[in-house]
Amino acid sequence: MLIAACLYYSGLVQLVRWWIQYSRRSLVILTYHNAIGGDLRAHILHLRRHYRLLPLKTALEELYMPYKKGSQRKDRRPPLVLTFDDGYRDNYINGFKLARDLQVPLTIFLIPGYIESGSRFWWLEGDQLVAQALASEATIEGRTYHLDDLKEREVLAQAIDARVRYATSVSEREAFLVSVRETLREPHEMTSKEDTLQPLTWAEVKEMEKSGWISFGAHTMHHPILAYLSDPAEVQYEVSESRAMLERQLQHPVRTFAYPVGQLEHIGEHARRAVQEARYDWALTTIYGFNTPQTDPYLLRRVVVDVDQHWLMVAAKASGAWKFFSRLARMLAK
Q1: One domain, residues 257 and 318
Q2: pLDDT by residue (tens digit) across 45-64?
């Protein structure tokens, strides 16, 4: 936070943003997950002041479309897109409210298989299952955990997360979670905090889209890490069926896709081909960077930020100053 403040108030954030703006045509895409837990309003107010906040489709068409002869854009601020992955309910509670109040467009990447399924997102399961467990002792995959010991509880939560994260199929993942729920004797009551972490409903999705401020893309059917799936046919299904279901619900083409987790090692050799075969126009990663007309449209880069970060940190990351400083610090440390 102190470094981010120094970068901002020294003028380095503005300098780096100006240099990128005038040295090349580029597009910044930020990605969040949650919309509650920090001051998202402060983030947006800063970004709206210094960038042209655009819908994702508009920004990508502008990036890849050559300038027409004689055309000049009056607003010289660099373009920026705000995206949210997964489709948490807090995107509706707070993100949608801010989009309307501040009149800024957002894009949310949805996981249709979770919507109105009654299930938690799998990456929340480890902590939640252990926190709500009624059993005092549990044997899972050959190891016994004593849940009256805090360290044992932490180890079990990590073991559950690792097991579902590296699952080689969605069915394997879900079968494992069913067995763990039975072993831990999890109750069914949901806390208010947990409710904000539930998936959006279709009614909420349609209300947001109808406003004109929110657009949606696909994020697979069940959010497996595509590189870990053993069957290429399941990769194809997860990619193509998510688009098909969204189009059935929204009644219009869905052109954008975001890879789950999104680094190259999580995408794998089959996912990019599956995205092309499913006839998406663009696919987004979480690989750090800004996009230029030379960027592969199926490996678009994003800058990962969090709602609980101070707006000064978001300002430094969005401008590129944070990455520049980090690289410089590593070089000087050698």
Answers
A1: yes
A2: 999 999 999 999 999 999 99
